[in-house]
TrEMBL record:
It catalyses: L-proline(in) + Na(+)(in) = L-proline(out) + Na(+)(out). It holds the Pfam family SSF. The gene is putP. This is Sodium/proline symporter. Keywords: Amino-acid transport, Cell inner membrane, Cell membrane, Ion transport, Membrane, Sodium, Sodium transport, Symport, Transmembrane, Transmembrane helix, Transport. It comes from Pseudobowmanella zhangzhouensis. The keyword Cell inner membrane applies. Catalyzes the sodium-dependent uptake of extracellular L-proline. It is found in: Cell inner membrane; Cell membrane. PROSITE patterns: NA_SOLUT_SYMP_1 (PS00456), NA_SOLUT_SYMP_3 (PS50283). The chain crosses the membrane at residues 6-24, 75-92, 123-147, 159-180, 187-205, 225-248, 268-295, 315-337, 368-386, 392-417, 424-442, 454-475. Belongs to the sodium:solute symporter (SSF) (TC 2.A.21) family. It is a multi-pass membrane protein.
């Protein structure tokens, strides 16, 4: 590896730590400052922060690698993600921003769930916090696996050492600056990813005389495009599109909507965020397609398809540019890990420890405990990531489904259905999470496989959770007048804010 590549990566690491130090000096030294940046995050930072924390290393490694395994069927996943992200901006973002502030300034998603029912330290708060900690530990391990593979493949370093380097840098700037540091670094990382996912597929495409040659080379390994339109079963298409359902329940994305400066800023964030996402997903899928063709044309041996972006970075560019492109992978990995660590530690300290503590816990102590929580969750995820054979896409898909099923229906119904009750919310969280776990891991098929070999676990989990919430809520006693009045106040606040934006 050329020294220029190491210099580029060193500059990137230094920049991330500098942003963390800046956020540490800028942040208000209180709970809202550490967890939500004081609710003063601009729409530009919100949009790219949400996108970067959403896509993670699976966009630059998992999604291109999926083209080698699934071929053009991967396009259905991309379409589902785009539709889900857009609906999340339209349905959830403005209402959640208004509701979390009206609901006694809720700072975390579990805190909002509790205050939505006029409660403070309720069962739904602790239960949802535990779900976040469990699934985010799994999700964070997927990011660490990507980091370990990057250092192993690109720098011939030991896989475990790659895990240590990745985790150390992320933990450092997350500990320093909290949510503001995470958001600002995500903004920078989102810009890096945007450029990289335009540059890499474009330069790789230049290695072919025409688009026809590229498609001809790719056709020797993957089925033609028509197969994705006519050859897939209905269950397979539903499974791929169902990735979009997950957006409604992802705490590390939803927390961005809680922190944005105002409801009026949501529209600007949506336009920027969706434009960014459209370009980057197209770039990731294109990288995979060109990668299939390139490997066939030059008869290359690629042991792990999820490293095709790394291969292109090394063989097609000057070492200094290679360093920039490898930094893009680190940017994707770190942006998501940092968000997940912060949300997990917030739930661990604010929604579990502080909620269950019999003694009054000061805000300063909670911030300190939050920093300790970052380390605890990070070390736990490190333990899960020690297996280098783990699939990034597989780990992400399980965690994504877990959050989507446990929280997605609950978030939507919290914002749109005044009749939902606390018992209904509990039923939805538990039934959704349990359904995903059983569907993913129980070997109930005749060949010993789990049911997710037929249908993505998100679909049954989302359906079971929704039905559970509705049935239990209707059986349960209706919410009190105070809760209903707060719900009506939120609807009015959102309506007025959106009218102001449209005017």
């Amino acid at each position: 590896m050329d020294i220029s590549t190491y210099i580029a990566l060193a500059i990137y690491f230094a920049a991330m730590l500098a942003i963390g130090l800046f956020a540490y000096r800028t942040n208000d030294d209180d709970l809202k400052g550490y967890m939500l940046g004081g609710r003063q995050v601009s729409p530009q930072v919100t949009a790219l922060s949400a996108g970067a924390s959403d896509m993670s290393g699976w966009m630059l490694m998992g999604l291109p690698g999926a083209m080698f395994v699934m071929g053009y069927d991967t396009l259905w996943i991309a379409l589902g993600l785009l539709i889900g992200a857009l609906l999340n901006y339209l349905l959830v973002a403005p209402r959640l921003r208004a509701y979390t502030e009206i609901a006694n300034d809720a700072l975390t998603l579990p805190d909002f769930f509790a205050k939505r029912f006029g409660l403070e330290n309720s069962a739904v708060r602790v239960t949802s916090a535990l779900v976040i900690i469990v699934f985010f530990t799994l999700y964070t391990s997927a990011g660490l696996v990507a980091g370990g593979k990057l250092f192993e493949s690109a720098f011939s370093l030991d896989y475990t050492l790659g895990l240590v380097i990745t985790l150390s840098v992320v933990v450092a700037y997350t500990l320093l600056g909290g949510f503001l540091a995470v958001s600002l670094t995500d903004f920078v990382q989102g810009c890096i990813m945007f450029v990289a996912l335009i540059l890499v597929p474009w330069v790789a495409f230049e290695q072919f005389s025409s688009g026809q040659e590229l498609l001809r080379q790719a056709a020797s390994s993957i089925e033609p495009l028509e197969s994705a339109l006519t050859g897939m079963s209905a269950l397979a298409i539903i499974s791929s599109l169902a990735w979009g359902l997950g957006y409604f329940g992802q705490p590390h994305i939803i927390v961005r909507f809680m922190a944005i400066r105002s409801v009026q800023d949501v529209k600007v964030a949506r336009n920027i965020g969706m434009s960014w996402m459209l370009v980057t997903i197209a770039g990731a899928v294109s990288t995979g397609l060109v990668g299939v063709a390139y490997v066939n044309k030059f008869d290359l041996s690629l042991a792990d398809p999820e490293t095709i972006f790394i291969l292109f970075s090394q063989i097609l560019f000057h070492p200094l540019i290679s360093g920039f492109l490898l930094a893009a992978i680190l940017a994707a990995i770190m942006s998501t890990i940092s968000s997940q660590l912060l949300v997990s530690s917030s739930s661990l300290t604010e929604d579990v420890y502080r909620a269950l503590s019999k003694h009054q816990v000061s805000a300063d102590k909670t911030v300190l405990l939050g920093r300790v929580g970052v380390v605890v969750v990070g070390v736990s995820a490190f333990g899960l990531a020690l297996n280098p054979d783990s699939s990034i896409l597989s780990l992400v898909s399980n965690a994504w489904a877990g959050f989507g099923a446990a929280f997605g229906p609950l978030v939507l119904l919290s914002l749109f259905w005044s009749r939902m009750t606390h018992k209904g919310a509990m039923a939805g969280i538990i039934s959704g999470a349990v359904t995903v776990l059983i569907w993913s891991y129980a070997p109930v098929m005749s060949d010993g496989q789990a049911l997710n070999s037929l249908l993505y676990e998100m679909v049954p989990g989302f359906i079971v959770s929704t039905v559970s919430i509705v049935l239990v809520s209707l059986i349960d006693k209706a919410p009190g007048k105070a809760v209903t009045a707060e719900f009506a106040e939120t609807q009015l606040a959102v309506k007025e804010a959106l009218q102001e934006v449209n005017a």
